TrEMBL record:
Top-level taxon: Eukaryota
Keywords, sorted A to Z: Membrane, Transmembrane, Transmembrane helix
Name the UniProt record assigns to this protein: Uncharacterized protein
Transmembrane segments annotated in the record for this chain: 7-30
Length: 71
């Protein structure tokens, strides 16, 4: 039943194209820098993501939350 809805196909196609674009940009970044930098950036992107999650979802900030982001 959901396969007959045109908007499903639009969203599914857009999702696939976005995934393809992310893969190409990751490979381009790896080509431009190197494996160590790529790995470091992959690790460090978790910090702003965690801070954004705490801010957007209004999670109470306490010592265990902050330590879980730090380590």
């Amino acid at each position: 039943p959901i396969l007959r809805i045109p908007m499903f196909w639009v969203v599914a196609t857009a999702s696939g194209l976005l995934g393809l674009a992310i893969s190409f940009s990751s490979m381009w970044f790896l080509h431009q820098t190197g494996p160590t930098t790529y790995s470091l950036v992959g690790s460090l992107n978790k910090i702003p993501l965690s801070v954004a999650g705490i801010t957007l979802f209004k999670v109470p900030t306490n010592l265990p939350n902050m330590l879980s982001i730090s380590f």
